[in-house]
Amino acid sequence: MRNPSVRRLLALVAGLVLANALIFVIENASSRVYRLPPELQADATTMADPVAREAFMQAWKAYMPTAPLGLMLFPLAAWLVGTALGVWLAARLAPESARRNGRLIGGLILLGTAVNLSTLPHPTWMWLAGPLVVVVGAWLGDRLAGGASPAA
């Protein structure tokens, strides 16, 4: 591609798409391994109805103390793998802006992680581990891409 700005933008978009796709797939795999009770299986209709949404949130809050540890590890793995491979792809597609794209992808995944953590009740340790795995994932993605990219 001749225009470096377009290449940088497309690399960023490709990295974000890959990161989000991996996060989606890995987080949804948890529902295959750990079956949630019916009251915790919300859909768009549930979340749109304030009464049903509140009942769902209360059921989720009551379930969290008994939730299996493995159920909590799936999102952490998703955020780590998704961030790392999204940053890696963006760096490989546009090495001249690898660090900048890596920071953007890491920052956007970090924002998504904060939204996820604040939307549903999570244990305190998830609030600490979630952002940490995103930062580690961004660092790892940069290292996998070569880590010698120029500072952006």
Compact overview of the structure:
With 152 residues, this protein is mainly α. The protein is built from six helices and no strands. It has one domain.
Verbal overview:
- There is one protein chain.
- With 152 residues, the chain is an all-alpha fold.
- It has one domain (4-144).
- The chain has six helices and no strands.
- It has helices at 4-33, 44-48, 50-63, 69-93, 98-119, 124-144.
- Helix 1 (4-33) runs antiparallel to helix 4, helix 4 (69-93) packs antiparallel against helix 5 (98-119) and helix 5 (98-119) runs antiparallel to helix 6.
- The radius of gyration is 18 Å and the shape is elongated.
- The two termini are 20 Å apart.
- The relative contact order is 0.17.
- Mean pLDDT is 90; it is low at 148-152.
Radius of gyration over all CA atoms, rounded: 18 Å
Helix coverage percent: over 70%
Tally of DSSP β-strands: 0
Class by SSE composition:
mainly alpha
Distance between the termini: 20 Å
Taking the sheet with the most strands, its summary is: none
Catalogue the unreliable spans: 148-152
* Helix and strand run: HHHHHH
Question: Roughly what fraction of the amino acids lie in strands?
Answer: under 5%
Overall tally of domains? 1
Number of distinct helices:
6
